[in-house]
Every structure is written in C-alpha cells, then in structure tokens.
TrEMBL record:
Gene: surA
Domain PpiC stretches: 187-287, 290-402
InterPro entries, A to Z: OMP_Chaperone_SurA (IPR050280), PPIase_dom_sf (IPR046357), PPIase_PpiC (IPR000297), Trigger_fact/SurA_dom_sf (IPR027304)
Species the sequence originates in: Chishuiella changwenlii
Cleaved signal peptide residues: 1-30
Annotated transmembrane regions: none
Record carries keyword Signal: yes
Gene3D superfamilies the record matches: 3.10.50.40
Keywords in alphabetical order: Isomerase, Rotamase, Signal
Lineage: superkingdom: Bacteria
The protein's name: Peptidylprolyl isomerase
Single annotated GO MF: peptidyl-prolyl cis-trans isomerase activity
Length: 465
C-alpha cells in the first residue's frame, strides 16, 4: 500500500475537519505561531488504517502537542486518534460515492482562501512558511492541496450524512442553558460585500504569452524535458514544483476548457496554447486509463501592465461613485460588473467558508481587506484597492454591510449562532451513529499503542459477539 505523506490535521478554525473533531473549535495559530514547525516531525509508524485511508503517528502527535500548547489538559492521545479516524471514514466513503465529485477549480479556490487566511493571521508569507517548514509558497500549496481535497470530500459526505438536521427553538434554548459556560465569546465581526474587477489584458500582451508557450512546446518536441520546463516556467501553484503533473484526472475535475483540450489529446501529444480563467496553458498527455488521465501542464498567468491596472482602477472607482450618488445600487453593480462569478448573483455578499455564515472576525481579515474597511461605518463603501484574488491581480471595493461589536454570547443577540451550535451537536450524534454502521463494512486496523483506548466507537468490533 502506497503512503502519501500529507501535512494533515492542523488544529485551525479554518479546517473543515474541526467541525467533526470538536463542537467548540478555537483558532490556535496566533498562540503557536512562534513554536517549532511541525511538518518535519519524525514519522514513526502507522497509528491506524480506515479503509484506504492511513493515519500516521505524526498526525496524532501533532494534534496532541498543539492542544498542549493551547494549555488544554490532555491525559492521552485516544480522543485525537478517534476524531482523525472518524474523518478518515468520511473521506474513504466519499471517494467511493459516485454522487460526490470534487473539481480542481473547487480545490484551488478553497486552497487559496485558506492560505490567504493563514498568511493574514501569521503576518506574512515568510512567517507561515517558517512555521510549517516549507521553502516556497508553491511547495506549500503543492502539498496542502491534498489536504484541501480530502477536506472537501469529507465535508460533502458529512453534509449527506447529516442532511435534515435541525433544532427547534425549544431545543436551542435547552442547549444554551446546558452549554452557556462553554460557548465562546463573540469577537468583533463584520459582514461584507464586494465587487471585483480583473484588469483587461490587451491582445498584444496575451499574444506574447501564447508565443512563449509555443516556443516552450517547440523546445520540448525537439527533446527538452516537459517536467523541467514546467518547474522553470509554470505558474500553477498546485503542480509547478512537481513538473506540472496531475494524475488520475477525470472529467469535471478541472475547469471545462481544460477538460475539452485534455480529453482530446493522444498519449504523448502536446496541446496548442489555450485559455482558461487562470491564464494560458499547454498540456502533455502522459497516459490514458479509460476516463482517467495522467498529464502534465504549464500555466502562464495573465499579467496586466500598470496602465491596464490604472484603467481598471478608474473604471471601478467610477462604479463606486455611481453607487454613492444613488444612481445604482451595490447589488445591481455587482451583478453587472463584478468578475467574481460566485458572488455577483448574490449582491456581492461574501460568505465565510469556515463558519458557513456571512460574518468574518475583523482581526482575521487579510491585511488589504482589513485596511480597506478600518474607517468605514455600516453601509459605507471602501476606496478601490489592489488585491490578489483567485491567484490574479484584481481591483476591489468592499461594502461594510454591518458591524457586530465583541460581546459575551447571549440568547437575544446570538440566537442563530447558538442554533448553529445546537444543530452541530445534533449532527455530531448523527455522524457518530453513521460511523458505527460503517465499521462492519470497512477494513480497520488500530496500532498496538492504541489498543487499550476506550473509544466511543467500537472500531475493531471487539464487543461484537
């Protein structure tokens, strides 16, 4: 069995896995950012196997040590292993479920969002790279993309398992009375909308990229290594350091323009340059296995000139003025002009992918966003500012929809937040019941060190007579 080393199970609030591991997650990065990097911890064996998924000793050790750093009293590692195994069961079953599809576009979007959050909390890319023990951001993204992909698989399966879970007002009240002392305080939060414009890159500049890729293709066809060229020139953070390689690519995993080219290539063939939202690509098909492809690609992104950036800035500023003058609503402007295809049809409203609602802790916002809204009152719109959005240079304006001052969580102000906690508590019960039903049909092996653990789930069916 091949083991892929993956940086896994960081106890961040931003990790989807924490919705499974614990009801009341806390963000630990700020508390541990100056501690020793954990990526290089010694891997001393396999703690458990759940189906096709492996739990390494280093996964359990990492969670255990980080909890100790938070000041949490922990007697043993059993609970940590149990939660990781629960997660692994979700991932294993999700990858067998034909109804669950995870696209590369979805992985890239989630990966960039999470890393942007980590960088903002750490104070810069250098701090986050030093903490995790990576040399470059490309290297970090190349490794953590597998974590993000597994997180998405687990999240999708979890949503299927707990579908329909709800809490009545009476259940919410009883939950709050029981757990009031355990619930976290509410920090300064904001809800935001945005409009994004990508500078329009001229046909002349686009043609330069096309010509560069054609020259690279020509050199490869004359004997140069595609792998080497990808390492040197590709700007895809998910594959560049690995020679542009993607394995087992099925239809729908990449964006549609990529699929259209890749699935029409013959083995060994290199495509002509083609365009996606990420820039221009060339693909080499290494191997076809039915409807799965092993391939390599080189991406060169579109880079606007200063003049093109200034033109987009002026356009967005004129849109801002129209909104402020009452000649256009923010909702209409987002629908008509925003290049963010995920929010333009929703008034530009930003959703917090970690919490599932529209509130963001103000202090955790990326620095460009934090700076843009610092002096705003509710309903105000920021000045235009430059930002990196979806790995591209972009211009943005933010609307501060509403501010929520820090306060002790209470039933009157935070009913919907408490309701969410109550629903999550019910979901966890549903999830545990589901896992118990899966145990009999899955290959499960627990390492000798953990055989004495009193797990809430009878993983190895020791009590079945």
């Amino acid at each position: 069995m091949k083991i892929k080393m993956k940086l896994k199970y960081m106890k961040f609030k931003s990790s989807m896995m924490l919705l499974i591991a614990t009801l009341f997650a806390v963000n630990t990065f700020a508390q541990t950012a100056k501690s020793t990097p954990k990526r290089l911890a010694k891997v001393d064996g396999i703690a458990a196997v759940v189906g096709s998924q492996i739990v390494l000793e280093s996964d359990v050790d990492r969670d255990y040590l980080m909890s100790q750093q938070q000041g949490v009293k922990v007697d043993n590692k059993c609970d940590f292993l149990n939660d990781i195994m629960l997660d692994k069961m979700l991932v294993d079953r999700a990858k067998q479920d034909t109804l669950i599809k995870v696209t590369q576009d979805e992985v890239t979007r989630q990966l960039n969002s999470q890393i942007e959050g980590w960088v903002a909390q750490a104070g810069g890319e250098k701090q986050i790279l030093d903490y995790f023990g990576f040399r470059t951001m490309a290297e970090m993204k190349n490794e953590t993309k597998y974590i993000v992909e597994d997180n998405i698989y687990a999240r999708n399966k979890r949503e299927m398992v707990v579908k329909g879970a709800d809490a009545t007002p009476e259940e919410v009240r009883l939950f709050f009375e029981k757990h009031q002392g355990e619930l976290p305080d509410v920090k300064d939060e904001v809800s935001l909308s945005h409009i994004v414009l990508f500078p329009e890159v001229s046909q002349e500049n686009q043609q330069k990229i096309i010509d560069q890729l054609k020259e690279i293709k020509k050199e490869i066809e004359e004997g140069a290594s595609f792998t080497t060229k990808a390492i040197l020139y590709s700007e895809d953070p998910g594959s560049a350091s690995n020679g542009g390689e993607y394995k087992k690519v099925s239809r729908g995993k990449m964006v549609k323009e990529f699929d259209a080219v890749a699935f029409n290539l013959q083995e060994g063939e290199i495509s002509e340059p083609f365009k996606t939202d990420f820039g221009y690509h060339i693909i080499k098909l290494d191997k076809r296995r039915g409807q799965e492809l092993d391939l390599r690609h080189i991406l060169i992104s579109l880079k606007p000139t200063e003049e093109e950036i200034k033109k987009a800035t002026n356009k967005l500023d004129s849109i801002r003025l129209l909104i402020n003058d009452g000649k256009m609503t923010f909702k209409d402007a987002a629908l008509r002009f925003s290049d963010d295809k995920y929010t333009k049809f929703n008034s530009g409203n930003l959703m917090n992918q970690n919490s599932g609602d529209d509130r963001f802790e103000k202090i955790s916002l990326p620095l460009p966003m934090f700076s843009a809204i610092t002096t705003l009152a509710d309903e105000d719109i920021s000045q235009v500012f430059e930002d990196d959005f979806e790995n591209r240079k972009a211009l943005r304006i933010l609307k501060l929809n509403k501010s929520y001052p820090a306060h002790k969580i209470n039933y009157e102000q935070d009913y919907y937040r408490i309701q969410k906690f109550a629903v999550q508590d019910k979901e966890r019960t549903m999830l545990l019941d589901w896992v118990k039903r899966q145990v009999g049909d899955a290959y499960i092996k627990i390492g000798a060190e953990y055989q004495s653990c009193n797990f809430p789930i009878d993983w190895e069916k020791k009590n079945v007579k």
